[in-house]
Amino acid sequence: MKTNTETPRDADASTTPTKPCEVRARYEAAAQALSEALGRKRAMSERAAKMARAGEAAQAQANAVREQYRELLSQVDGELTREIQKLRASERSSLTLVEEYAALQQEIQTQVTGMELEVAELAWAGMERRNRVLELASQEAFDALMALAGDAMAATYALHRRATLSSVLVQMRPSDGQVLAGFVYKLEKQIKERLDSVGEQVDREIGVKELELDGADMVLAGSPSRRAVLRRAEEDARSH
Question: How far is the C-alpha of 72 from the C-alpha of 77, rounded, in Å?
């Protein structure tokens, strides 16, 4: 089944977007393609389940009719009355439905299985493009922070360094790396205290919806080699 969204197989052949709007647009397109594929897969799975339920109902009907004519047979010493013949015909009709529903279910289930590769490839493409969005959002936020408070942070670190070094003997002074680590530790504590309150802001900075993955085979999505094997097998099957 073909889609309008590139899969990981052709993503390398395309130009990597650099503008924020392009990066987010490519992710949105991949997320939409995955959502639509998952929707088709769910619809087919529901149809397969419906066929299974219909088959079970037909089998139950056949069983009930069989019990009825067997009981009648015992009452008439094995004579095939018209009523018994009608019941047997009803049983045969129900059993035919059982077979037809089973065949339809198998056909639909085969289609569902065939979609696993498409969904896995779209999931992988979506995850890669979301990672690119997260990298972009992270860099944008960092650049904004530096533009807004970079000088203040540098001055704060300079003061921290002077305070740290001024109170110890020269031979016991920590290295620049140790001084920086002490500053980063203080900064880390302040950041962690604020993490729980910035969730909505983080979502705004990312600027895209979450990737829908419920229903995707994540083991298959995370195995390029296995997907390549399945893709070759699928292409070989179509060529014969």
Answer: 9
Place of tokens 């960092």: 142
The percent helix, strand, coil of the chain (3-state, each to 5) is: 80, 0, 20
Q: Round to whole Å and give the CA distance between 240 and 235.
A: 9
pTM of the model: 0.72
- Cβ atoms within 10 Å, residue 162: 11
Q: For residues 20 and 205, is the Cβ–Cβ distance under 8 A?
A: no
DSSP state at residue 175:
P
16: pLDDT confidence band, cut at 50, 70 and 90?
A: low
Strands, DSSP E only, in the chain? none
Number of H helices, E strands in the chain: 7, 0
Q: Assess contact for 8 and 224: CB atoms under 8 A.
A: yes
> Reduced to 3 states, what is the DSSP secondary structure of residue 76?
coil
Contact 216, 125 (CB under 8 A): no
Q: Kindly report, residue by residue over 57-84, the tens digit of the pLDDT.
A: 999 999 999 999 888 888 877 677 888 8
DSSP state of 198: -
